[in-house]
Predict the structure.
Amino acid sequence: MSRPLSIALLHGPNIGMLGRRPSAHYGTLTLRELEDLVRGWAAERGMRVGCFQSDHEGSFVEHVHGLAGLVDGAVVNPGAWTHYAWSIRDALEILGAPFVEVHLSDVEAREPHRRVSVVRDIASAAVWGKGPDGYREALDHLAGVLA
Ligand code: DQA
């Protein structure tokens, strides 16, 4: 029997505040509830998920460094870092595993600064504006890429 795929679920700043952020953009789930949902979807796909969230860029970078060789892929919502944090891009590049960039809200239909992503061109795929379902789509993408 093959081992389950190991997927990192990574969240950037303020994502830990889900449930207290504008529901029109982010819905009503807390991060814990979102993580539980993703864990369940992953289990249905024979994947195991490890969750991490940080509001600190350096902590996030170091966490990603530590994942090298331990995960098969990642689902990443870098929050506001998406739009400007080159250190996050570099860390994900170093990781060398396929990752999907996910945003709960429709970043392409909001303020102009949210249309910029410094990670998109190294991401295996990107999903936005689909709420939690975007994470399920990301898992399906990784399942295909890693098959
Ligand atoms: C977000 C979109 C970002 O622009 C924002 O800074 C976030 C969340 C999203 O999931 O829609 O914190 O990544």
Notes: The domain at 5-146 is CATH 3.40.50.9100 (Rossmann fold). The chain has one domain: 5-146. The chain is about 35% helix and 20% strand.
